Amino acid sequence: MSNPIAATLAYFSVGILLLIVCLACFEWVTRYNCWTEIRKGNVAVALATGGKIVGICNVFRYAIQAQSAIYESIGWAVLGFVLLLAGYFLFEFLTPVLRVDDEIAKDNRAVGLISFLVSISLSFIIGSSITYG
Questions:
Q1: Average pLDDT, stretch 57-82?
Q2: Which terminal CB of the chain, N or C, has fewer other CB atoms within 10 Å?
Q3: Nearest to 60 by CA among 14, 108, 8
Q4: How far is residue 89 CA from its own chain's centroid?
């Protein structure tokens, strides 16, 4: 897009839509209801959800930066989200001494913080590989 205002509005609109879809996907795979738990004051869920939001948006940022066409950016963003989702399952799998979702649902803030940091950290690795590709 040659008009920067139109491009900004397009990327913003698509980014918000993709964020909502991605959060719905995360909501579907967790054992707890994020927004119900946040409404109850569960800080661990808020941390984990916040990390997912920042992670998703960071991957989208790299996808927008790396590509000129909005469709290519969407493709990279979706691939990045799938990798973030895979990282989420890997995090659950690699911690056999505890069930991450269950601990977060119980407001274990230490696990919520680690989940927050894992999401953000993975988003930088995924995003850098998008920029490189």
A1: 90
A2: C
A3: 14
A4: 13
Q: Which of 59, 63, 57, 64 is nearest to 7 (CA)?
A: 64
Measuring CA to CA, how many Å separate 20 from each of 16, 47, 82, 94?
6, 17, 14, 27
Give the C-alpha separation, 20 to 90, whole Å. Answer: 23
Burial class (CB in 10 A: 0-12, 13-18, 19+), 60: buried
Give yes or no for residue 1 having a pLDDT over 70.
no
- Tokens 């890997």 appear where? 90
The conformation of residue 96, written as its DSSP 8-state character, comes to: T
Check: pTM over 0.85? Answer yes or no.
yes
Please give the structure tokens belonging to residue 28. 């579907």
**pLDDT of 2-38, one tens digit each?**
788 998 999 999 999 999 999 999 999 998 999 999 9
